[in-house]
Structures are given as C-alpha cells and as structure tokens.
Amino acid sequence: MGNLRRKLTIAALALASATGVLAVPATASAATANVQIQICNDNNAALKFFLVGYNDQGDWVNSRFWDVPANGCTTASNYWWQTNSSVEFHYVRPPAGWTWHQVYVPKSKNGRTFTYHQS
C-alpha cells in the first residue's frame, strides 16, 4: 500500500510540475501587449489626471495622480496598460470639477508609450 501511495504522489508531483512549466509561456505572452500612457495638455491651464483600466497583468486598477503643466506632457510612468482596450481618463482643471472619458489604447509594441492629447 505504501509503494502505491508513493507512486501516486510522484505522479501527482510530476503532473503539477509539467503543468507549471507549461503555464509559464502563457503568462509571459499575456503581458506582451502593453504600453505606458503620456497625456499632453493642449490647453493654457494645467490639469491633474489619473487613469483606470486593465493593466498588463489583466487587473482592473487605478493609477496614482499626475500633474500636467499648461501646454505640456506627462507620462504616467510605472503603469502599464493593455492595448486594444480602453482606459478611463479622469482629469480636472480647477476651478472646474472632475470629468472623465474613455481613451482607446491601440495595439502597440511592448514597452512603447502611447500619447493622448487633451485640449
């Protein structure tokens, strides 16, 4: 009985090991279509923004806040977003209140920066 239990345990470990090895390429390839987003403010008033959407790991997340100077650009660095998808672009220009709209992030190479202009 002990010999059978040992053989079943070894078989189960081998199967788990094989499954884990096979899962690695799928996980790595899922994260290849992602970009950072740069917001360019085509306006004479500064704005503050944050993004909400699916990150490169497939999780729905909120970014931190960034400031964009008047007629300037800011990259939402260290946040990677899925391509061929939309993110929520939330922004404010005081004294107006917060507003948002969806921004489509087109397919792009891994590691590139997608630039969006807000007027």
Automatic annotation (TrEMBL):
Protein name: Secreted protein
Signal peptide boundaries: 1-23
Alphabetically ordered keywords of this record: Signal
